[in-house]
Amino acid sequence: DAGVIQSPRHEVTEMGQEVTLRCKPISGHNSLFWYRQTMMRGLELLIYFNNNVPIDDSGMPEDRFSAKMPNASFSTLKIQPSEPRDSAVYFCASRPGYNEQFFGPGTRLTVL
Amino acid sequence: AQSVTQLGSHVSVSEGALVLLRCNYSSSVPPYLFWYVQYPNQGLQLLLKYTTGATLVKGINGFEAEFKKSETSFHLTKPSAHMSDAAEYFCAVTAFNAGGTSYGKLTFGQGTILTVHP
Questions:
Q1: Across the strands, what pairs with A107?
Q2: Residues in chain A whose beta carbon is closer than 8 A to a beta carbon of chain B?
Q3: Which of the listed residues A24, A47, A85, A104 has the most CB atoms within 10 Å of its CB?
């Protein structure tokens, strides 16, 4: 198994642009999580999906952030418009049932 | 509600010395506890986990941790440090309950950066 796949690995964009981050979870995992990691705030959970349905989006910072999971093998996290304070590493993780989470390699986002 | 406190944001040891990274947690329901390791520019990799049963759990790369309910601790140890152990380590807690109010959301500590000197 290839593990959790995230793309792109690095993204540099200018303030105001739309950014879309992509995640392919491990096949058979029914839960998917999006996290953000910064030096100041550490690892923060943004949103959690179970069986493709958003269950908890209380960590989404504001309306500029949105996430979708149209099927069991794909999820996106979109930021529109992006701001410099959104610069961070964004991780996707998936989980089979009640077990540990498996993390992707992350997307390093820089908003200029 | 759950929380995790990792004591010491930086720990430095000599190669061959004991590694001890401290983690204390709070949880209103029986916890599941995890240690993850993050190497530079990589994602988090699971080192070990405690769910139920034996309180001393062994993980990869020679690490182990002991769940102590009375002390609400889950400290990570390794008898002899290698240079390759240099990384950031995260303790995390989660819980599941029959009421469905806890779906296994992971709460992470702030991380401990381990430096290993030759």
A1: A90
A2: 4, 31, 33, 42-43, 45, 48, 50, 55-56, 91, 93, 95, 98, 100-106, 108
A3: A104
10 Å CB burial of residue A95 (0-12, 13-18, 19+) is buried
Section A45-60 average pLDDT: 92
DSSP A84: G
Arithmetic mean of pLDDT over chain A: 94
| pLDDT(B100) > 60 | no
Mean pLDDT of B12-38: 94
Cβ pairs A/B, distance under 8 A:
40
